[in-house]
Recover the amino acids of this structure.
């Protein structure tokens, strides 16, 4: 981390998809904790 930021390594397409899926699951977990959903997003 720094200003300006620099590329440390490239992220593959598969890693990108995993990160997006994890973020969506985390969002569902946040909704469950706030009482807006019963789906935790993780199984």
């Amino acid at each position: 981390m720094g200003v300006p930021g620099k590329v440390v390594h490239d992220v593959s397409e598969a890693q990108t998809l995993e990160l997006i899926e994890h973020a969506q699951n985390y969002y569902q977990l946040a909704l469950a904790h706030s009482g807006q959903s019963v789906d935790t997003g993780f199984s």
Notes: The chain has a mean pLDDT of 88. The chain has one helix and no strands. The two ends are 32 Å apart (CA to CA).
